[in-house]
Write a structure and sequence with these properties.
Blueprint lengths: L1 E5 L16 E4 L2 E5 L8 H10 L8 E4 L31 E2 L12 E2 L25 E4 L1 H6 L5 H5 L5 E3 L12 E3 L2 E2 L4 E3 L2 E2 L11 E8 L3 H4 L6 E7 L7 E9 L3 E11 L5 E12 L7 E13 L5 E14 L5 E4 L8 E2 L17 E18 L2 E17 L2 E3 L9 H9 L3 E6 L4 E20 L2 E24 L5 E2 L10 E24 L4 E18 L2 E21 L2 E12 L18 E14 L4 E15 L17 E17 L2 E16 L17 E10 L1 H5 L7 E11 L2 E2 L7 E2 L2 E12 L2 E8 L7 E5 L2 E4 L4 E9 L1
Parallel strand pairs: 1-3, 11-14
Antiparallel strand pairs: 1-4, 2-3, 5-6, 7-13, 8-9, 9-10, 11-12, 13-14, 15-16, 15-45, 16-17, 17-18, 18-19, 19-22, 20-21, 20-44, 22-23, 23-26, 24-25, 25-28, 26-27, 27-29, 29-30, 30-31, 31-32, 32-33, 33-34, 34-35, 35-36, 36-37, 37-38, 38-41, 39-40, 41-42, 42-45, 43-44
Length: 797
């Protein structure tokens, strides 16, 4: 006979003590409830309980032999297992924009702003951000709306430790980020699945943006050496509402967004989001973009044991890519800076009027969840994506010889100009591709004796294929001047080499969280990947095949509810060919890049869960790092093939409501980096890593002034004020530390007034009009916008 015990809601008195056990019998099974079976770990699992409306105490499974065809005698009552006294559970803060499914995994944005209490939104990563033993930065819906954020790049400026590259690391331009100094090539996800394609990601369909720092192969697979960026989409939920907004701003910015959710019946709903934007950069010549997008979501069975959410996403854009202003070395100096630091207008664009970046992406996603019982849930997530791109861009070079001045730099500092700036860059191409991913996973919660488990296991399959038709310029692109570059294009595209790429990855993963006591738990996991990639470049075929095993382990101590200390270790690997949209399989044998991290941290909650604090110290090593030639897509020795890095750092964060009318969102990162092996001998060993600031900080605060300004005057509505600052120390642009951009400081502010169903918002950006740089690469940098303003009018129905 199989006997199980659990404690239902009615079995507890108001004091938390157990009432008389309840017994149920069916089909030869006897199930009884009682305190003895419950390894009640509210102190070890209270965060998830507070957020998860479906959480149910788990049964202890006791198996006893029984003759199958004989009537069973009344079994002897088993001896009670040791009992852990329940600790007081901290009330969970209210959650807004949460799924109506009742699963904390999908509760994304706490009303308090304390992002530690947010759900992960990923089935194979159960619980809340509080439960994940690593730093997880979340940019919630409130911040996206208050700051008027229009793109993923802009959202990530709120996350210290993330820098933006111009994008030449294989796929030129598009969204290219580094996490703790390590390139996040192909490590962008949406709703836990890979976000395929190369394009500038608009934020119109974002519920929140997450950055999971440190190697994350256990959850996401090959790659993710520095971490993973995961965006959460706006999906259908059980409610009916609609809204629209129109924004006008500096540089002839025009932007419109709409959002409508309609409840079809008690368990079904549909949601549609739309966006149109036309923008010109007021501080950069010729730089403009025009894009539009639509996202639809259908939810079936919401709030039931079986849920299916189907999402469709489409975005199309036509823009001019910006490769920035070249760096230059002043004679007698050892470190150069962009020309704009020496008086050249930051508006100067060194490309041509034929430079273009036209992209289109279509993605269909199905997310299925079935809860068999409170202890066992299965997830099946599938995505099919099609993407295409037409791209041509130009880069200017004035300093290409390390610490040796060139004719360009000598002439500029002597005469103030130079009529011989070389203009090269990646060759034009047309890209057409498709991708498929399916992740099937299960989460099981059970007890073995007095020990509680949370087991996650699954399989992940990814397939991607694309064709890239290359072109060349005929004749070659002409040189230009520093001060007044011409944009005329006396050349045409000439048909070049066609490249076909295909990759496949099969991953198996398992992890288990085991509570040794109500306060102490351990997590162990491993993921095995079999990755294959092939490139046919004009008839030359190269292949790679790698099997990788990436383990991870953590220890979590929760001395009181909603407070924890943790230690974690993880490893991640990234083989060549992982990102075939811009990377070509090399003909040489190259072992996968490998990263390893050790992290000790804490996640604390105060003010009844309304304010969260995170802190961590960590060490990251990365071996066999390589760069990609943006033109050929091959491994490029000159970009540090085989380099090894070491990063030691500290990260602090605070989010939530510090006073009834004041919320804050801030963080600080210190990164002490160095190159420990150049892969080619001693040069650059001991230098700082490139594209990594030593110090980075951001702080955003809002104050609801309604009670102070409106109520005394007898006015209704809500009047919100907000302001924030961002800071980064100087950043080296290359491994030999011969070029850098200076430290940057940005001050933004906003105010909004909401009354009835109407809202008007004024945002001001870079109000001190600093010369900063948003995107960086080895020899140049893209200047940020100067002082700009945006006004937005919104209505809700």
């Amino acid at each position: 006979m199989t006997t199980g015990t659990c404690l239902d809601n009615e079995a507890l008195s108001s004091s938390g003590k157990a009432k008389k056990p309840i017994s149920l019998a069916y089909q030869g099974l006897k199930v009884s409830t009682g305190v003895a079976s419950l390894v009640t770990l509210p102190s070890a699992y209270s965060t998830a309980q507070a957020q998860d409306a479906t959480a149910t105490p788990l049964p202890e499974l006791v198996v006893e032999g029984q003759a199958p065809k004989k009537k069973a005698a009344k079994p002897k009552k088993p001896s009670p297992a040791p009992v852990y006294e329940p600790a007081e559970v901290m009330p969970a803060p209210a959650v807004t924009n949460a799924s109506e499914g009742g699963n904390s995994t999908f509760a994304l944005t706490p009303a308090s702003g304390n992002t530690s209490q947010a759900g992960t939104g990923i089935g194979r990563l159960p619980g809340t951000v509080q439960d994940v033993p690593k730093i997880v930065n979340v940019v919630p819906q409130q911040i996206l709306e208050q700051q008027g954020i229009q793109s993923l790049e802009r959202a990530l400026q709120n996350v210290p430790g993330v820098t933006v590259a111009i994008g030449e690391g294989g796929p030129p331009n598009g969204d290219q980020f580094r996490i703790r100094g390590i390139e996040a090539r192909g490590d962008i996800y949406t709703d836990g699945l890979r976000d395929f394609g190369i394009f500038t990601r608009d934020a119109f369909n974002y519920e929140s943006v997450q950055v999971l720092k440190g190697p994350s192969s256990g959850t996401f697979g090959q790659g993710t050496a520095g971490g993973a960026i995961n965006t959460q989409s706006k999906t259908a939920r059980l409610d009916t509402f609609s809204s629209g907004a129109v924004s006008l701003g500096s540089g002839s910015l025009k932007r419109t967004t709409v959002d409508g959710n309609y409840q079809l019946n008690e368990t079904s709903a549909i949601r549609i989001n739309g966006m149109f934007q036309d923008d010109e950069n007021p501080d950069r010549d010729l730089i403009e973009s025009n894009r539009w997008g639509v996202a639809a979501s259908l939810g079936l069975g919401l709030g039931t044991n079986t849920e299916l959410v189907v999402n469709y996403f489409h975005q199309k854009e036509d823009r001019v890519p910006d490769y920035g202003i070249p760096g230059v070395l002043r004679p007698g100096s050892t470190v150069g800076q962009p020309l704009s630091e020496y008086g050249v207008p930051r508006s100067n664009f060194y490309g041509f009027d034929t430079d273009t970046d036209k992209t289109q992406v279509d993605a269909l996603t199905a997310k299925f969840k079935h809860t068999f019982n409170p202890f066992f849930t299965v997830y099946n997530d599938t995505r099919v994506t099609g993407y295409d791109r037409t791209f041509a861009a130009t880069q200017a070079n004035c300093q290409r010889s390390g610490t040796v001045p060139t004719a360009c730099s000598d002439s500029f500092f002597t005469t103030g100009d130079y009529n011989g700036v070389t203009r090269t860059g990646p060759s034009p191409y047309e890209l057409d591709g498709w991708a498929f991913q399916n992740v099937t996973s299960a989460v099981a919660k059970f007890n073995t004796g007095v020990f509680r488990h949370e087991l996650v296991a699954g399989v992940d399959y990814v397939r991607e294929s694309n064709e890239r038709q290359g072109y060349s310029y005929s004749p070659a692109r002409p040189d230009g001047t520093i001060v007044d570059p011409s944009h005329a294009s006396p050349f045409r595209w000439k048909l070049g080499t066609k490249r076909e790429s295909d990759s496949r990855n099969l991953g198996l993963f398992v992890s288990d969280r085991l509570w040794l006591t109500p306060q102490l738990s351990v997590v162990g996991g491993v993921r095995w990947d079999d990755f294959e990639a092939e490139t046919n470049n004009g008839g030359t075929i190269t292949k790679t095949d790698n099997e990788m095993t990436n383990p991870n382990a953590s220890v979590i101590w929760e001395p009181v509810p909603n407070q924890n200390l943790y230690f974690s270790w993880a490893r991640a690997q990234s083989p060549q060919g992982s990102y075939i949209t811009g990377e070509r399989v090399s003909s040489s044998v190259l072992e996968p890049e490998e990263a390893e991290t050790f992290e000790v941290g804490t996640k604390l909650n105060f003010l009844n869960g309304k304010l969260g604090f995170t802190g961590a110290i960590f060490k990251v090593t990365k071996d066999n790092a390589y760069g990609i030639d943006p033109d050929s897509g091959l491994i490029n020795d000159s970009r540090g093939r085989g380099e090894s890095y070491e990063i030691r750092g500290v990260e602090l964060g605070v989010t939530g409501r510090v006073l009834p009318d004041v919320t804050i969102f801030g963080g600080y990162t210190y990164l002490d980096t160095q190159i420990v092996d150049n892969g080619q001998g001693e040069p650059n060993v001991g230098n700082q890593m490139w594209l990594v600031p030593e110090h980075a900080a951001s702080l955003w605060a809002t104050y609801d002034a309604s009670d102070w300004l409106l109520r005394p005057a007898g006015l209704t509505g809500e009047w919100l004020w907000g302001a924030g600052v961002r800071y980064q120390s100087e950043i080296f642009l290359n491994s030999d530390n011969s070029l850098k951009v200076p430290s940057s400081f940005t001050f933004d502010a906003m105010t909004s007034y909401e009354f009835n169903n109407y809202k008007i918002t004024l945002n001001g950006y870079n109000l001190t009009d600093e010369l900063n740089y948003d995107q960086l690469w080895t020899s140049r940098a893209v200047p940020s916008k100067g002082r700009t303003f945006t006004v937005t009018g919104a209505v809700k129905f």
